[in-house]
Design goal:
The protein has 12 helices and 12 strands. By secondary structure, it is α/β, with parallel strands linked by helices. The protein has a single domain, classed as Homocysteine-binding-like domain (TIM Barrel, Alpha-Beta Barrel), CATH 3.20.20. This is Homocysteine S-methyltransferase.
Length: 294
Amino acid sequence: MSKVSDRLVILDGGLSNALEDRGHDLSDALWSARLLRDDPAEIAAVHRAYYDAGAMVATTASYQASVVGFERAGVGRAEAERLIASSVRIAREVRDEFPGRLVAASAGPYGAMLADGSEYRGNYGVSAAVLRDFHGPRLELLMSAGPDLLAIETIPDTQEAEVLVRLLTELNFPAWFSYSIDGAFTRAGQPLDEAFAIPAIDQVVAIGINCCTPIDVLPAIRTAVSASSKPVIAYPNRGESWDPVARGWVGDGTAPATFARDWAAAGATYIGGCCRVGPDDIRELHTKYLAEEV
């Protein structure tokens, strides 16, 4: 993220909810990745909406995009690889309309491909070799399309984190690294101070958390600051709970602008939103930052 200032950097929000708000049904296993095949212009429109709202970074529609997932949906391998790479191309084309902005190629956890909610549990019961074989080729595909950095996000456990850190070291490409958490632990139950120590490599430009409840963010930022010298990134969801059976969010939520001042004061440098946080929320965050210099 060397192209942006050392002040607070505002990220985008959730892609899937913004697409749903535009009338798209994302209830199948491909989730937002389906529109890479069916309606890429709508993905571009969401990236544009976030940039218009003040986001400095667009996160690509590749979180749940994998060759395995596309093949299960009847897409051939070559076309699946093209679609995954296209997620970066779409975002880059929109980025070119907004000088100085960045594109982060999203790489979600192995559990996202399973589409059964296991990215919020971790401990998949598979070997490190299986995780490496899943992540390695996908990271290479995303890198080949030319993003500014990778967004290694919503990682639920340290086993997967260790595999991804080894891959990032070998591939030598910049990335931010964020965990999905539950209180002071990863979703799989490992202490956060231990988890934050894992991505201590030059290729990781920021560490932090995403897709967690906003109330868990402040203590997690403090832990990250204590456990690492890396800049800290925080982009939680609105605080609702995901129901993997109904494939929907339940409960009430709060926008990140409500807490941004405290998060920044605690040491967060990059702040945005994840699921259920939309362009209006990012605009509010951007306006609050400009008005109050969070």
